[in-house]
Amino acid sequence: MQIAIAGLGRMGMNMARRLLRGGHEVVAWNRSPGKAEEISAEGAKPAFSLREMVSLLSPPRAVWLMLPAGTVVDDTIGELMELLSPGDCILEGGNSFYRDDIRHAELLSSRGIRYLDVGVSGGIWGLTEGYCLMVGGAREDYERLEPLFRTLAPEDGYLYCGPTGAGHFVKMVHNGIEYGMMAAYGEGFSILKASPYGDGLDLAQVSHLWNQGSVVRSWLLELAEAAFREDPGLDALQGYVEDSGEGRWTVQQAIDTGVPAPVIAASLFQRFRSRMDDSFGDKVLAALRYQFGGHAMTPVGEEKKGDDSGAGEIRPATPQKKD
């Protein structure tokens, strides 16, 4: 089957490779041309503009977007709708918000252009392990393009989830769950490392052990094992954790529908916390502990104290009496 991949980042490039190895004809475009040239050496047809990309496809065309969600996707769809023909299909494989999918589909339908939203999970390992695909849109479009999904996914690794937006909605919740799982692993390993047994524990071996029949076994633990083997104390890393949007949207969806999701919400806020050095919130906590209990407070510029041995020269404020 013929397909264009627009966006050759960490996932898009390997998706193009997997499709080529599966016997599909791939037209490749990227905002920077070097990557299109790179994949052309492996059999893809390079395109150096969206117009050229479309011209290299035969109707009904299929264009799979693997681009940053938001403005980039909006702008690219806006340009493509002037180039594509009725019956052509855009597959949006980035991390777009499901409500944006509904907007995109409505916009494209005015030109007779089809639209599928495809949540993609698999990261940099998708080339060898396959990608988990969650697809939303019209079932007839899904069925026509199913050979692509079958090539990209491992066995039982793709699913038609429902009408437009359903694919990215399922992927959104998937990533929210991922946030919570990662946070739990992070907390557990922190407790182990800080324990009286921490110096004697090989965390790579613990990770490996837990994957042998344990109820907490997972691919994330396999990745943790690999990380601990490379750097046992993770000394080369900074504890700064970004989020790409899905966790926020999952928490907002929980709020909108009144569904309690304390674990996912807490894991999202922990990511925010990871980006703050000496946060103002922690300053407030330290000040309050000092004010109500005289617990040790470290002035700026002094070495941090490890206990509550005293408050130094700084004195608590006297509470104001109410009238």
Description:
By secondary structure, the chain is of the alpha/beta class. It is built from 14 helices and eight strands.
Layout of SSEs?
Blueprint: E1 2-6, H1 10-21, E2 25-29, H2 33-40, E3 45-47, H3 50-55, E4 62-65, H4 71-80, E5 89-92, H5 98-109, E6 114-121, H6 126-129, E7 132-137, H7 139-144, H8 146-152, E8 158-162, H9 166-194, H10 203-210, H11 219-230, H12 246-257, H13 262-274, H14 280-293
Parallel strand pairs: 1-2, 1-4, 2-3, 4-5, 5-6, 7-8
Antiparallel strand pairs: 6-7
**Sheet with the most strands, sense and barrel status:** 8 strands, mixed
Low-confidence runs:
307-316
Helix count?
Answer: 14
Shape from CA axes?
A: elongated
The SSE order reads EHEHEHEHEHEHEHHEHHHHHH
Share of residues in helices: 40-55%
How would you state the average pLDDT, rounded? 90
Range of strand content:
5-15%
Alpha carbon gyration radius: 25 Å
Distance between the termini: 79 Å
Structural class: alpha/beta
Record the strand order, biggest sheet. 3-2-1-4-5-6-7-8
Number of strands: 8
Features:
single chain, 323 residues, alpha/beta, eight-stranded mixed beta sheet, 14 helices, 47% helix
What is the gist of this entry?
The protein has 323 residues and is of the alpha/beta class. It is 47% helix and 12% strand.
